[in-house]
Input
Amino acid sequence: MTPPKQDRRWSDFAEWLRSGHSLYWISGKAGSGKSTLMKYICSNPITTDLLDSWRGGSTLLQARFFFWAAGHTLQSSHEGLLRGLLHTLLTQCPRLIPSVCPEICTEIVAGRELDLSWTLPELIEALRLFVENSEGLRICLFVDGLDEYAGYHGDLIRAFETLSSYDNVKLVLSSRPLAEFNDAFTDMPQLRLQDLTYQDMIKFVSDRLDHSRGLRELEELDPELRSTLVRGLCDKSAGVFLWVVLALRSILDGLQNGETASTLQRKLDSLPSDLYEMYKRMFKSLDPATQKSIARMILIMLRSKEVPRSEPMSLLQLALVDNEDITAKKAITEELWIMPSNKRQSLCLWMKRRIDGQTKGLLEVTNQDNIAERGSSAMDAWVEFYHKTAIDFFRSDETWNLLKTQAGSNFNIDLTLLVSSLLEMKVLPSETAIVAGTNRSVANLRQGLMFASLLEEHNLRPYTALLDDMERTMRLHWAKATMYKRRALDDEWTATRDMTFERFVGKQANIGQTRRFMRSYFDEHPSFLSLAMEYGCYLYVADKASWEESVTAQQRTSLTCILLWYYMAGDRGLDCHSGTKAVTAILQVLATDAEAVTRMDVYQCWRTLTKELSRARPAALRFDYANNTMDLFLAFLNDREIRLHPEVTTPGVRSLLQKVHENVVAENPSGTKNDSTQQDLDEFNTKYDKAHTILATEWKEEGNEAQKKQNSEARKWPGFTFILLTVLLSLLLLSYNLSVTSLGSSDTIRDL
Output
């Protein structure tokens, strides 16, 4: 990106890579191509070649991070940025791990159990230690989408300014030209994307117009039309490449329909210059006759994008659920069936035609080649939004509410999303492709569990019937695939011919820590529930534990303990919403167990909670999270078995409660409070006071009753002891009398 000599409107990026330091800022409006450019820079070997001149004899390290507000929480947070950068840097330079993570290394050497959770201050300190111990290293960091950071932008700016102050560190940053970034980076080497892309836009528009037969015919009447359209589109774009792409479609449609030059000019003039207004115009132009089905399609796609790390929606999956009559009940009663390749091809091509023709380019199908040849569109064709700015547009309150209205009041987005995974699982390819199709079915299963986990968070209810049917469907598919592999006698299947469904899913579920608590349960049911737990379907697991007749009291104990472990100390580090879901699941099991004939070992569950409370992650001590923890505390305090257990004392519980309160207050200093945290604090204190009231009243009364019972039993002992001594004394006297009588008789005989 070297600027032309006659036009120095941006800093020479290539020269900066070779010899510069500090940071380089790339700015541009939404849709201007910032992320595309950043990906190109990061992946282009020329970048490394240029950095080689800068590094000299040092070792070069590179790391990248792309903020994305619509993704997972970690993709838009300071914590996610630091974790991503540290992971990449330490992977490239593992010798610095002891310097960056001294406490963890000490714990490993001592053989103690690791707490792998990180606080934000710890991550900031770790990155500082890495940089300060990086002698002999040169570090270049690429960070895209600063404007999509969910926190206070000032904190992010200060962090980058600190990093850029080191002589061996340089940063390439990109963002929209927001005021705070303009103020911070205005004196830094920089590039405005609209300055770079204008000539590319002209070339792009000209090339597309060259393929328009309508323009060639119209140019005979108006030779200036081409240049008018090219300049008009590029000037109005304000550097937003995506706007040019969308606006050009409208012009090309007009040329194809035979519109006059004056009509085309009016159309160009009427196009909104703002990208989001352009989306609104496109959305309003959708055919009213297809409005309902398109709105439903977009809502399904939007909801699927909320699921972190989920498989994308396949073309076949969307086609199967594109039916107003489909319901969860119908999906469950649907049996497995083989869809011939020609029918699969026709269904996918028909769905692609609908998307291309009816969504006006808002959705697009990618990688659709070889649908007929492979016999499985799911392996080749996916449906995506044209650009992430389209997702932002549809998620705005105004558009989202309009979509829901158009979709109809009886449309359930969540159920339909989950049903889409199930329906694709039930459509088998031809027998010869069934083994390969198993891979997609397993992907559908994972996708379904991810969907169910998200929906549990939204609605705090399990989707037991649908997940049960997913398990049944997967087992049937697995059995068919295994039967085919054994019948085929092909060397390709030798290694997996005898792989059972339980063994396979056991490998899919990373249950290392869960074995500690759930060995007895997973030995009997190792497959599906372990997988459901791993993907966060806690309410589903709780529902099975509460109402499944085959689940024993011991298994309920194991399930509750592992739910407590996931909530308090799981590797995933649950956020507040997931934590609420986990606590809801635990409370359900406790409430159901209280009415059970054979109760689980509530004391073991209590020990798990108190153990994890003593070493709770700092994130678990935030007011919003601590409120959930206090709900658990209250549930156990209200359990009579805990109150009467000899190992549980009122002073011990009161001490633990006070310690938790102290830790929570210490983790939430008064300077960080806002209206929301103040409300959380008030709620936490109310629950804390309620816990003390229970200890002072119900536990005291329960203790008095227990003491009375103990005293009553003690009063019985003297009477019982007296009776026992009397009986023993009587037996001794009787024995003595018998002995004397016996001796007297013997002497008499001897005298005679």
